[in-house]
Write a structure and sequence with these properties.
Helix 1 runs parallel beside helix 4 and helix 1 runs antiparallel to helix 8. The model has no long low-confidence stretch (mean pLDDT about 85). The longest helix is centred in the C-terminal third of the chain and has 35 residues. The protein is mainly alpha-helical. The chain has a two-stranded antiparallel ribbon. The chain has 8 helices and 2 strands.
Length: about 210
């Protein structure tokens, strides 16, 4: 059973999930600078933060309904865009004279991104997260149930769309993207199937426990 929170009182779990969600939105882009090997699969590390976003929005949809989950995703644009703006602003400011050149180069390499990649991140985030909430909610039947199926299906489909949008917008026309698309999609489908379902169960249980103490 879902309960839409009133305007005058924010449930303890929704408050906690909102803070966590905002943090994952901001760190995902930083983690994406590293490629990690998971057996034969190679994937950008930002996927771990994005899977946390998927699990969190699904848990919020389960606990409080689709409209609240959609508002969470919408609010997530604020830290995403503002963190991009701050990164751009800091890159424009002159470095301190005593800052080592190797540290400055490393910072600019990690935090610097083209407007095309920034745009890709915004489009992919919004589309995939709203899609995840929509699919997760549409598959729900009266009385709930089949949480594992709803979580896995919504996560897998939304991550396929996320990968397609981000890689296509970022790199199409610069180099062939077919193999990169297939590899990233395969890795994200596997990770979504393995990780998201237990995370959603854990977040839903945590949310109910937090609210029971209120």
């Amino acid at each position: 059973m879902t309960t839409e929170p009133s305007a005058s009182a924010i449930p303890r779990s929704l408050f906690a999930f909102s803070i966590f969600y905002g943090g994952m939105v901001c760190i995902a882009g930083v983690l994406a600078n590293k490629q990690v090997a998971l057996g034969p699969l190679g994937v950008e590390a930002g996927i771990f933060a994005f899977l946390m976003l998927v699990a969190t929005s699904s848990a919020v949809a389960e606990l409080f309904g689709r409209p609240t989950a959609n508002r969470l995703v919408l609010i997530g644009f604020a830290p995403l865009i503002f963190s991009m703006f701050l990164a751009w602003l800091v890159l424009q400011l002159p470095p301190a004279h005593d800052m080592p050149a190797d540290r400055l180069a490393a910072f600019e390499l990690i935090m610097g991104a083209t407007p095309r990649i920034w745009a890709a991140g915004i489009v992919a985030y919004g589309t995939s997260q709203f899609l995840n909430v929509t699919i997760f909610s549409m598959l729900k039947r009266p009385g709930g149930g089949l949480l594992w199926l709803r979580a896995a299906t919504a996560s897998i489909l939304s991550q396929i769309v996320d990968t397609f949008l981000f890689i296509t917008i970022s790199f199409y026309g610069l180099f062939p993207i077919g193999n990169l698309l297939l590899g990233q999609m395969l890795a994200k489908v596997v990770l979504s199937a393995v990780l998201v379902t237990p995370l959603v169960y854990a977040f839903v249980a945590l949310g109910r426990k937090l609210d029971a103490r209120a």
